[in-house]
């Protein structure tokens, strides 16, 4: 015998749950009978036939759909900030991360960040990370602020940074909207001039990398879109003192 008709039957039971904490529902319970039939050729033994569908998580992983987030954190980094109101002189703690579940370990980078007075990318706009291919934290170099990436990382899939609070000159509104572009590489890949997070140390007048090799920051004063020949060094990140509060 070369073939046979294989039949699988399933029963789906649906029982609605109450809406939040309310004692009501807006759907009815249901029972659905499902029957699948297909021809089984050549192998007609009584052994079970294992399903061949691809799990949903594998499909998502194959499509490289990543979950990025950017969160304003509390002053001690213990969780999201309970307030989004800051005063001039405050450091705004920001945390970018990527959910790399079902992926190889990933390292996240902040490619660029732009601040605007409105949510629709309205003018004026201030690019404080990345500009014309720099991909570096420019604010402290441009303004002498204490803005910086936090080193070391708490995890490869997380990057934390601090932005010195500011307001837009000549505007009566004080709201600021921040839009950042994030990207990832495999943790197994070394940082390089195009994949890095570099801060400027105003006291030492030099750039430092969160990931430990300051040589990757050598293009921050030129253009990292067309970086100079890259030589890996052994420098360690430098930490500058925070501005004392007054």
UniProtKB/TrEMBL annotation:
Q: Has the keyword Membrane been applied to this entry? A: yes
- Do you know which InterPro entries this protein is assigned to? ZP-C, ZP-C_dom, ZP_dom
The topology of this chain with respect to the membrane is:
Single-pass type I membrane protein
Localization per Swiss-Prot or TrEMBL: Zona pellucida; Cell membrane
Origin: domain of life: Eukaryota
Q: Which Pfam families match?
A: Zona_pellucida (PF00100)
Q: Does the keyword Secreted apply?
A: yes
Q: Posttranslational modification, per the record?
A: Proteolytically cleaved before the transmembrane segment to yield the secreted ectodomain incorporated in the zona pellucida.
Q: What is known of its domains?
A: The ZP domain is involved in the polymerization of the ZP proteins to form the zona pellucida.
Per the entry, what this protein does is: Component of the zona pellucida, an extracellular matrix surrounding oocytes which mediates sperm binding, induction of the acrosome reaction and prevents post-fertilization polyspermy. The zona pellucida is composed of 3 to 4 glycoproteins, ZP1, ZP2, ZP3, and ZP4. ZP3 is essential for sperm binding and zona matrix formation.
Family membership: Belongs to the ZP domain family. ZPC subfamily.
The protein in question is named Zona pellucida sperm-binding protein 3
Species per Swiss-Prot/TrEMBL record: Polypterus senegalus
């Amino acid at each position: 015998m070369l073939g046979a008709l294989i039949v699988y039957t399933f029963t789906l039971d649906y029982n609605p749950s109450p809406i939040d904490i309310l004692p009501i529902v807006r759907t009815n319970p249901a029972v659905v009978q499902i029957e699948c039939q297909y021809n089984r050729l050549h192998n007609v033994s009584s052994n079970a036939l294992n399903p061949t569908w691809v799990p949903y998580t594998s499909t998502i992983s194959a499509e490289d759909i990543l979950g990025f987030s950017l969160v304003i954190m509390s002053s001690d980094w213990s969780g999201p900030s309970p307030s989004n109101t800051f005063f001039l002189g405050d450091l705004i703690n920001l945390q970018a991360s990527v959910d790399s579940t079902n992926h190889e370990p990933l390292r996240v980078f902040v490619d660029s960040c732009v601040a605007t007075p409105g949510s629709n990318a309205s003018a004026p706009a201030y690019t404080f990370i990345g500009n014309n291919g720099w991909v570096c934290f420019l604010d402290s170099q441009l303004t002498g602020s204490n803005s910086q990436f936090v080193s070391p990382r708490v995890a490869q899939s997380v990057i934390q940074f601090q932005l010195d609070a500011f307001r837009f000159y000549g505007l009566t509104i004080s709201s600021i909207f921040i839009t950042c572009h994030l990207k990832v590489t495999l943790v197994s890949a070394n940082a390089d001039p195009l994949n890095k997070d570099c801060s400027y140390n105003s006291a030492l007048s030099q750039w430092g990398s969160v990931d430990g090799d300051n040589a990757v920051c050598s293009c921050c004063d030129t253009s990292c879109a067309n970086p100079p020949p890259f030589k890996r060094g052994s420098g360690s990140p430098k930490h500058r003192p925070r501005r004392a509060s007054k």
